[in-house]
Amino acid sequence: MEKILVVSSNKTASETLLDFLRGSFKCTPKIVESAYQAKVHLNSDVLTELVMINSPLMDESGVEFAEYVTENTTANCILLIKAETAEKISERAEKAGVIIVGKPFSKAILYQIVRTVDIAVSRSVELYLRNARLEEKINEIQTIDKAKFMLMEYKSMTESEAHAYIEQYAMNKRKKKSIAALAIIDKLSEQYL
Protein backbone atom coordinates (compact mmCIF):
# COMPACT_ATOMS: atom_id res chain seq x y z
CA MET A 1 0.00 0.00 0.00
CA GLU A 2 1.59 3.24 -1.14
CA LYS A 3 -1.09 5.92 -1.16
CA ILE A 4 -1.88 6.75 2.47
CA LEU A 5 -3.39 10.01 3.71
CA VAL A 6 -3.01 10.91 7.39
CA VAL A 7 -5.48 13.50 8.66
CA SER A 8 -4.44 14.91 12.04
CA SER A 9 -4.65 18.35 13.62
CA ASN A 10 -2.15 17.31 16.31
CA LYS A 11 1.42 17.87 15.03
CA THR A 12 3.01 15.44 17.51
CA ALA A 13 0.56 12.67 16.62
CA SER A 14 1.08 13.41 12.90
CA GLU A 15 4.82 12.95 13.19
CA THR A 16 4.43 9.77 15.26
CA LEU A 17 2.00 8.28 12.72
CA LEU A 18 4.24 9.35 9.85
CA ASP A 19 7.30 7.68 11.43
CA PHE A 20 5.28 4.54 12.20
CA LEU A 21 3.92 4.23 8.65
CA ARG A 22 7.27 4.95 6.98
CA GLY A 23 9.09 2.47 9.20
CA SER A 24 6.51 -0.31 9.08
CA PHE A 25 5.17 -0.09 5.53
CA LYS A 26 7.87 1.57 3.42
CA CYS A 27 5.49 4.24 2.16
CA THR A 28 5.43 8.03 1.97
CA PRO A 29 2.13 9.14 3.47
CA LYS A 30 0.68 12.56 2.84
CA ILE A 31 -0.32 14.53 5.94
CA VAL A 32 -3.07 17.17 6.15
CA GLU A 33 -4.53 18.94 9.19
CA SER A 34 -8.24 19.19 8.46
CA ALA A 35 -11.17 17.39 6.87
CA TYR A 36 -11.40 20.18 4.29
CA GLN A 37 -7.76 19.76 3.23
CA ALA A 38 -8.25 16.00 3.11
CA LYS A 39 -11.30 16.33 0.85
CA VAL A 40 -9.31 18.56 -1.52
CA HIS A 41 -6.50 15.98 -1.56
CA LEU A 42 -8.88 13.04 -2.12
CA ASN A 43 -10.53 14.87 -5.03
CA SER A 44 -7.14 15.39 -6.67
CA ASP A 45 -5.76 11.89 -5.91
CA VAL A 46 -8.50 9.31 -6.41
CA LEU A 47 -6.02 6.43 -6.01
CA THR A 48 -5.60 6.96 -2.25
CA GLU A 49 -5.81 3.51 -0.66
CA LEU A 50 -6.03 4.35 3.04
CA VAL A 51 -7.13 7.39 5.02
CA MET A 52 -6.05 7.42 8.66
CA ILE A 53 -7.92 10.00 10.73
CA ASN A 54 -6.63 11.07 14.16
CA SER A 55 -9.74 12.47 15.85
CA PRO A 56 -10.64 15.20 16.72
CA LEU A 57 -9.83 17.39 13.74
CA MET A 58 -9.68 21.18 13.78
CA ASP A 59 -12.82 21.52 11.69
CA GLU A 60 -14.89 18.52 12.89
CA SER A 61 -14.83 15.45 15.11
CA GLY A 62 -13.56 13.17 12.35
CA VAL A 63 -16.52 10.79 12.42
CA GLU A 64 -18.42 12.59 9.66
CA PHE A 65 -15.29 12.81 7.56
CA ALA A 66 -14.64 9.08 8.02
CA GLU A 67 -18.15 8.40 6.70
CA TYR A 68 -17.47 10.78 3.80
CA VAL A 69 -14.33 8.80 2.92
CA THR A 70 -16.09 5.44 2.78
CA GLU A 71 -19.13 6.80 0.94
CA ASN A 72 -17.33 8.94 -1.66
CA THR A 73 -13.97 7.28 -2.32
CA THR A 74 -12.50 3.82 -2.83
CA ALA A 75 -10.11 4.32 0.09
CA ASN A 76 -10.28 2.33 3.30
CA CYS A 77 -10.60 4.40 6.47
CA ILE A 78 -9.15 3.98 9.94
CA LEU A 79 -10.47 6.34 12.61
CA LEU A 80 -8.27 6.82 15.69
CA ILE A 81 -10.60 8.05 18.44
CA LYS A 82 -10.88 8.06 22.25
CA ALA A 83 -11.89 4.63 23.54
CA GLU A 84 -15.09 5.87 25.24
CA THR A 85 -16.22 7.60 22.04
CA ALA A 86 -15.28 4.53 19.99
CA GLU A 87 -17.79 2.44 21.95
CA LYS A 88 -20.55 5.00 21.33
CA ILE A 89 -20.05 5.22 17.56
CA SER A 90 -18.99 1.63 16.84
CA GLU A 91 -22.32 0.58 15.27
CA ARG A 92 -22.51 3.73 13.14
CA ALA A 93 -18.90 3.29 11.99
CA GLU A 94 -19.41 -0.39 11.23
CA LYS A 95 -22.39 0.41 8.98
CA ALA A 96 -20.24 2.97 7.14
CA GLY A 97 -17.30 0.57 6.78
CA VAL A 98 -14.99 2.63 8.99
CA ILE A 99 -12.38 0.78 11.06
CA ILE A 100 -12.17 2.21 14.58
CA VAL A 101 -9.11 2.10 16.81
CA GLY A 102 -9.66 3.27 20.38
CA LYS A 103 -7.04 5.58 21.90
CA PRO A 104 -4.73 4.90 23.57
CA PHE A 105 -3.48 1.95 21.50
CA SER A 106 -0.23 0.10 21.03
CA LYS A 107 1.90 0.22 17.89
CA ALA A 108 1.48 -3.57 17.60
CA ILE A 109 -2.31 -3.26 17.38
CA LEU A 110 -2.12 -0.43 14.87
CA TYR A 111 0.42 -2.40 12.82
CA GLN A 112 -1.89 -5.44 12.72
CA ILE A 113 -4.86 -3.33 11.63
CA VAL A 114 -2.96 -1.45 8.91
CA ARG A 115 -1.36 -4.71 7.73
CA THR A 116 -4.80 -6.33 7.50
CA VAL A 117 -6.07 -3.39 5.45
CA ASP A 118 -2.96 -3.65 3.25
CA ILE A 119 -3.63 -7.34 2.60
CA ALA A 120 -7.29 -6.62 1.84
CA VAL A 121 -6.35 -3.79 -0.57
CA SER A 122 -3.84 -6.03 -2.37
CA ARG A 123 -6.40 -8.80 -2.66
CA SER A 124 -9.07 -6.40 -3.91
CA VAL A 125 -6.73 -4.97 -6.55
CA GLU A 126 -5.82 -8.47 -7.68
CA LEU A 127 -9.49 -9.46 -7.96
CA TYR A 128 -10.33 -6.22 -9.76
CA LEU A 129 -7.57 -6.79 -12.34
CA ARG A 130 -8.61 -10.41 -12.83
CA ASN A 131 -12.22 -9.33 -13.30
CA ALA A 132 -11.17 -6.62 -15.79
CA ARG A 133 -9.23 -9.20 -17.83
CA LEU A 134 -12.25 -11.52 -17.85
CA GLU A 135 -14.54 -8.71 -18.95
CA GLU A 136 -12.13 -7.82 -21.74
CA LYS A 137 -12.04 -11.46 -22.87
CA ILE A 138 -15.86 -11.65 -22.82
CA ASN A 139 -16.07 -8.45 -24.91
CA GLU A 140 -13.57 -9.86 -27.40
CA ILE A 141 -15.58 -13.09 -27.73
CA GLN A 142 -18.81 -11.13 -28.18
CA THR A 143 -17.21 -8.97 -30.88
CA ILE A 144 -15.87 -12.00 -32.74
CA ASP A 145 -19.26 -13.74 -32.47
CA LYS A 146 -21.05 -10.64 -33.78
CA ALA A 147 -18.69 -10.50 -36.77
CA LYS A 148 -19.26 -14.23 -37.35
CA PHE A 149 -23.03 -13.87 -37.27
CA MET A 150 -22.92 -10.87 -39.60
CA LEU A 151 -20.76 -12.83 -42.06
CA MET A 152 -23.19 -15.75 -41.84
CA GLU A 153 -26.19 -13.47 -42.40
CA TYR A 154 -24.86 -11.08 -45.06
CA LYS A 155 -22.25 -13.23 -46.83
CA SER A 156 -24.07 -16.57 -46.49
CA MET A 157 -21.10 -18.24 -44.82
CA THR A 158 -21.25 -21.19 -42.49
CA GLU A 159 -20.02 -20.70 -38.94
CA SER A 160 -16.73 -22.46 -39.65
CA GLU A 161 -16.22 -20.42 -42.84
CA ALA A 162 -16.92 -17.20 -40.95
CA HIS A 163 -14.50 -18.24 -38.21
CA ALA A 164 -11.79 -19.08 -40.74
CA TYR A 165 -12.44 -15.78 -42.57
CA ILE A 166 -11.97 -13.76 -39.36
CA GLU A 167 -8.76 -15.64 -38.51
CA GLN A 168 -7.37 -15.13 -42.03
CA TYR A 169 -8.35 -11.44 -42.01
CA ALA A 170 -6.61 -10.98 -38.63
CA MET A 171 -3.46 -12.71 -39.90
CA ASN A 172 -3.38 -10.67 -43.11
CA LYS A 173 -3.81 -7.39 -41.20
CA ARG A 174 -1.51 -8.49 -38.35
CA LYS A 175 -4.17 -7.63 -35.80
CA LYS A 176 -5.82 -9.38 -32.88
CA LYS A 177 -8.92 -11.33 -33.86
CA SER A 178 -11.14 -8.95 -31.89
CA ILE A 179 -9.71 -5.92 -33.72
CA ALA A 180 -10.13 -7.69 -37.06
CA ALA A 181 -13.71 -8.57 -36.07
CA LEU A 182 -14.44 -4.90 -35.36
CA ALA A 183 -13.14 -3.94 -38.81
CA ILE A 184 -15.32 -6.63 -40.41
CA ILE A 185 -18.36 -5.41 -38.45
CA ASP A 186 -17.69 -1.83 -39.62
CA LYS A 187 -17.37 -2.91 -43.28
CA LEU A 188 -20.51 -5.03 -43.19
CA SER A 189 -22.43 -2.29 -41.40
CA GLU A 190 -21.47 0.22 -44.10
CA GLN A 191 -22.52 -2.17 -46.87
CA TYR A 192 -25.72 -3.63 -45.47
CA LEU A 193 -27.07 -1.38 -42.72
From TrEMBL:
Annotated organism of origin: Ruminococcus flavefaciens 007c
InterPro entries in the cross-refs: ANTAR (IPR005561), CheY-like_superfamily (IPR011006), WH-like_DNA-bd_sf (IPR036388)
Domain ANTAR stretches: 124-185
Chain ranges passing through the membrane: none
SMART domains per the UniProt record, alphabetical: ANTAR
Gene Ontology molecular function terms on file: RNA binding
Protein origin, superkingdom: Bacteria
Pfam families (UniProt xref): ANTAR (PF03861)
Source organism phylogeny: Bacteria, Bacillati, Bacillota, Clostridia, Eubacteriales
Stated name of the protein: ANTAR domain-containing protein
